[in-house]
Amino acid sequence: MSTDGPRVLIVGGGLFQLDVIQAARDLGAQVAVVDRDAAAPGMALADHPLPIDTSDTAAVLDAARRLAIDGVTTAASDVAVAAVARVVDALGLPGAGQAVAERATDKLETARCLLDAGLSTPPTQAVRDLSEARQAISRVGGYPIVIKPRSSAGGRGVTVVQGEGALSAALERAARYGEGPQRVLVQGFAQGVSVGVEAFFWQGELIAFFAMDDQYQEGFVSPVGHSIPCTLAPDALAGVRAEVAAFGRAIGIESGPANFDLRLEAGTTTLIEVNLRLGGNSITELVRLAHGVDLSRATVTAALGRSPAALLDVQRQRASAVRLILKRGRGRASFRGDPAAACAADDVERVDVSVEDGVEATMRVDDWTLLGRCITKGASAEARAAEVALAVASAIEVRASSERLRTPEQVGAYWDSQVESVAADAELAELGTVTGPRAVVA
C-alpha cells in the first residue's frame, strides 16, 4: 500500500466488503473503512479504521472530509448506499448521488420513474393500513400479490400473498422494515423467468453486462443462488441487455456497478428491484470464477474517476454457481461433525460456514438463519451447489435456547439476533439465500 496513493473510503467493513477493500489496497490506495463494529473483519485491512455506523450519513461525510478522500464506494449493503451518495454529492466524486440513490432505494419511486419512461415494472401501490391494502389489491391485478417494505433489501419483510387470510400478517411483517407513513407496498405478482444481472455503467452508458440464472428455495422469496452461463437464448439476452441500459437511463445511473432483479415473460423484461452497488450472494466471486473479471477492482477504479472498461473484458467462459446455505429457525447452532467435510471435491471451489458450533447464530433474514455459502464450478455447477448447500444445512441444527447468557459478548450477540432494525440486518440480508430449482416467483 502506497502512503501517497489515492484515498478510498469503503462504507462497510463486514465479510461482504472484504473483496472491495482488498481491491482498493491492491490498487495502491490508502483505505478508510467505516463500520459500526470496530471488530468487523474489514477494519483490520484498513489504513484508517473508523468505528462509525454506516447509517449515520452525517458522520460518514464528516470522516470523508477529514481524510480528503478521492473516491467512495460499498458492496452488498443497501444501508451503505445512502452514505456513499451523500459523500458523492458533497465532495463532487464519481458515483450515484442522493437523487439517484433515492430513486433506486425507494421502491415506489423506482416504479414511478420507470413508468414515466414507458418501461415495465409491476403495478405498485403504497398503503398505510389493512383497509388501504384491500383497496390496492384490485388496482394491482388481484391475488396473488406481493407485500414488501418500501425500502429494504435481501428479501426482508417480503411476502407473496395468495389470499385474504395471510394479508394482515404480511403487512405487519413488511412494516417492521419500511420507513415513513406509507412504508408498505402492495405490488402485482410478476410472472416469468427470474434473471439476475450484474451491470456496470460508465459516463451514463452500460459498458458491461453479466446475466445469470437465479435459484430459489421454497419459503424464501429472494434468490438463494445464481449460476453462469445464463440459459436464456442469445436473442433474449440481447433484449434483456437493451432493457437494462434503458432502466439505468431512467433511474439516472452514471457510473459504477448496479445489481438488477428481473422477470422475463413473452419478450418483456420487467424490473423488480435495482441495487446501486456490487451484488450480494457472492456474485462478485461468481463473475470472477466464471469470466475472470474482477468487479471489485473495476468498482474502485470507477470510484476514483478512471474508466474501468479494460477491467471488464471477459477472459473466459466457465460454468459456475454460488449458493447461500440457510435453515429455517433462530437460535444456537449445533454441528453434527464437520458440516463442510463431505463437500471436498474438485468441482467445489469453496464452502464457508458462517456460524459456530454451540454459539448463538446472529446472521438471519426474517425467520431464516444464514449458515454460510458455497461456490462450485463445472458443467453441473448449479446442481452441485444445491447438493453442497443441502449437505451442509443437514449437518447443522439451529435451536432456540433458554440457557442464561453469561458474558457481555453472548448478550450482545443475542440482542443483535433479536433486534429488528435496518442497521442490524444490513450486512447479512444483502447475501441472498440457498438452494432450489429455477422458478417462477414474485
Question: What's the layout of helices and strands?
Answer:
Elements: E1 7-11, H1 18-26, E2 30-34, E3 48-50, H2 57-67, E4 71-73, H3 78-91, H4 98-105, H5 107-116, E5 124-127, H6 130-139, E6 145-149, E7 159-161, H7 167-175, E8 184-188, E9 193-202, E10 205-215, E11 225-228, H8 234-251, E12 256-265, E13 268-275, H9 283-291, H10 295-303, E14 320-328, E15 331-335, E16 348-353, E17 360-361, E18 364-365, E19 368-377, H11 381-394, E20 396-399, H12 408-418, H13 422-429
Helix pairs in contact: 1-10, 2-3, 3-4, 4-5
User: What percentage of the residues does DSSP assign to strands (E)?
Assistant: 25-35%
Biggest sheet descriptor: 9 strands, antiparallel
CATH topology of the largest domain: D-amino Acid Aminotransferase, Chain A, domain 1
Q: What integer value in Å does the Rg equal? A: 21 Å
The name of the CATH superfamily of the largest domain reads ATP-grasp fold, B domain
Q: Which structural class is indicated by helix and strand composition?
A: alpha+beta
User: Quick check: average pLDDT?
Assistant: 88
> What is the class of the largest domain in the CATH system?
Alpha Beta
Q: Could you tell me the number of beta strands?
A: 20
| Count of discrete structural domains | 3
Helix share bin: 25-40%
Distance between the termini: 45 Å
Taken from the alpha-carbon principal axes, the silhouette is globular
